[in-house]
Design brief:
It is built from four helices and 24 strands. The protein has 361 residues and is mostly beta strands. The longest helix has 12 residues.
Length: 361
């Protein structure tokens, strides 16, 4: 297998020459060059048998402006009734037009769209994940193949990451590829892997909910089971005591490399610098309307306009809540410029326990 991420045409040709790909038929080589040289938003995998899988770099292909640009209130609030309950995580396709969500209580995944004109929600497909995971909590988009869309999906207990193909049209999922070993020591009940983000060119970043709340790294490789690497205890190092989800977005090969974590203690979004995995740092944070959510659980970024000049921040919560924020990509506010209640929630005494589904009580 060969994998290419965002690179210059010259670099792409050199890599193909080194791998002997220039011996491929001209038509296939032309396809590979077209994919590589005409966009900085796409990478691809060359799999056994000659199947080309487009792997979206959507997570870092959208420029996310400073979080202060999203204002203190969402542009829309809605209930995503198609997920029924236990809204646990959210992912978007490379175009951002199609969304995927998890319901961990029912062990199900959903594909849906939200109309930009009238806000109408349309369910596209549903999948039963019962055969592959006990507690699906996090989902990250990897790409698409002939059978369907590929995702990394976390199983909270035991804390593992699976590569799953959600076949076109929905249905029952009967198999997956385990990407990681379980963490050691094992996570406590309902306190394991809560979210996952795909950072093309880096790997997967996974958040553990609590005890300890932590950020993990997975050097993902197709067909290889790897051991997660714990990067930072977010409670003791960053002051984030309970994590809900994670996504990666940041624009044109963001410098520094970054991820966004959603937490419920404190209730906020935190932008993290992951360019040095041995020294993860907070860039900025955003609270605002997140403070009023019952249980924030999901975060994703998509484009909000065809010209790419607006970006949308989606924040989901149990049971079926969704807040939609929008900002101009070229907003001139500075990083770390949130203030007051947009910076952090009012100081209210709260006790955070394990993240149990509605069914679990």
């Amino acid at each position: 297998m060969m994998m290419m991420m965002m690179m210059s045409p010259a670099s792409a040709v050199k890599m193909m020459m080194a791998a002997g790909l220039l011996a491929l038929p001209r038509l296939l080589l032309g396809l590979l060059l077209l994919i590589t040289t005409t966009t900085t938003m796409t990478a691809f995998m060359m799999l056994d048998g000659g199947q080309v899988v487009v792997v979206s770099a959507h997570q870092i292909a959208r420029k996310v402006p400073p979080l202060a640009c999203f204002g203190d209130a969402p542009v829309a609030r809605m209930q995503i009734d198609v997920v029924r309950s236990d809204f646990s995580s959210l992912a978007a396709t490379s175009s951002g037009s199609t969304l995927f969500a998890l319901n961990n209580g029912e062990k199900a995944a959903f594909q849906f769209t939200i109309s930009s004109e009238n806000g109408k929600i349309e369910k596209i497909a549903e999948w039963n994940l019962t055969n592959i995971v006990a507690d699906p909590e996090g989902i990250a988009y990897l790409g698409v193949n002939k059978a369907g869309h590929e995702f990394a999906i976390t199983d909270e207990n035991p804390s593992k990451v699976h590569m799953v193909t959600l076949q076109h049209g929905g249905g029952e999922i009967t198999s997956s590829s385990v990407m990681t070993t379980a963490i050691d020591p094992p996570a406590m009940a309902n306190l394991g892997f809560e979210g996952v983000a795909n950072v093309p060119g880096e790997g997967l970043f996974v958040v553990q909910e609590q005890k300890p709340a932590a950020l993990w790294f997975v050097a993902a490789s197709r067909g290889v089971v790897t051991t997660p690497q714990k990067l930072v205890d977010t409670a003791s190092t960053l002051g984030i005591d309970a994590l809900s989800d994670i996504t990666a977005a940041g624009g044109d090969a963001a410098e520094p490399a970054e991820v966004f974590v959603l937490s419920k203690a404190p209730k906020q979004i935190t932008r993290l610098d992951i360019s040095d995995r041995n020294n993860v740092k907070i860039i900025e944070q955003y609270a605002g309307a997140i403070c009023g959510m019952k249980q924030p659980e999901a975060i994703a970024f998509t484009t909000a306009s065809e010209d790419g000049k607006k970006v949308r921040m989606l924040v989901g919560g149990e049971p079926t809540e969704l807040l939609i924020f929008e900002a101009d990509v070229d907003c001139d506010k500075k990083l770390n410029s949130t203030e007051g209640a947009v910076f952090s929630c009012p100081d209210l005494a709260a006790t955070v326990g394990c993240d149990m589904t509605i069914e679990e009580g």
